[in-house]
Amino acid sequence: MASATVCVSYHFDAVSTWLWAFDAWDMPTRHSRGVYGADVGTPRLLDLHDEHDLPSTWCIPGHTIESFPAACEAIADAGHGIQHHGWTHRGPSSYESREAERADIERGIESIVALTGERPTGYASPAWDFSEHTLDILLELGFEWDSSVMAADFTPHYLRRGWRAPADAPYERGEPTDIVELPPSWERDDFPPFTYTWAGPHRMGYTDEEMIFRKWRDQFDWMCEHVDGGVYVLTLHPQVIGQAHRIGRLEELLEHMYSRDGVEFERMATVAKRFREQNPPEAQ
């Protein structure tokens, strides 16, 4: 078994991130950045992974699947994992009801089944947001793993439900479920440091890119040296990382990772399945 695992996770939001996360239906210049991710960024990334024979996982909103079918079919044909990222790109806590949130997740499942012929086993919530209902909905719909919650950095674990955070009493963590968490991190995400927006809720971008890629490399090296069997989830967006000046930096980072002894690149579903087999939920 590998001593360390890398999961490259692409959140292929395309136009959806601008329609819902930024409430920008009437701004075609923003939409065009999502189109860039589908038409330019995605082919570049698929070529990069093909050249180095590296698997990846693409978390794709149903809106993207239905809006850019050719790009999504190319991802599926290349053998990469395709998993759930909502139908819209609305944060789960923004829904007016449990029923509305569940309906969106079910619609996203339908889009993935239409593309791949299989139900997704994993979920990454838009903006890494959970409502009070999200975990129960995922359990009801048969999801096996998630990548949204940050209670660890490099260690898979089982998500908990029934937590409580009373203002006048200690925090209660709740009880483990049988959904495996493959923890992401805002520290390993390209959107916050590299994406500029003119107005709220975010104003960002223009970060020293060499510093960010060095940080990602340093985190990987630390994991390899200190966490036995660690899992490194790197979250990227085609419209961001697919820019010409970043593809070369990403390639250098990936080359550094797979040149290290004992490191494997794997799809997230594979990692979650292996964790479940080695750590059965009933044993928790």
Question: What is this entry, summarized?
Answer:
This protein is an alpha/beta fold and 284 residues long.
By CATH, the topology is TIM Barrel
The SSE string, one letter per element, is: EHHEHHEHEHEEEHHEHHEH
* SS elements, strand count: 9
CATH architecture descriptor: Alpha-Beta Barrel
Strand content: 5-15%
Morphology: globular
Domain count = 1
Q: Report the biggest beta sheet as strand number plus sense, adding barrel if it closes.
A: 5 strands, parallel
Radius of gyration: 18 Å
Uncertain spans:
none
Number of helices: 11
CATH class division: Alpha Beta
The whole-number mean of residue pLDDT values reads: 94
Proportion of residues in helical segments: 40-55%
The end-to-end distance, rounded to whole angstroms, is 22 Å
Please name the fourth-level CATH homologous superfamily: Glycoside hydrolase/deacetylase
- Overall structural class, as computed from helix and strand content, comes to alpha/beta
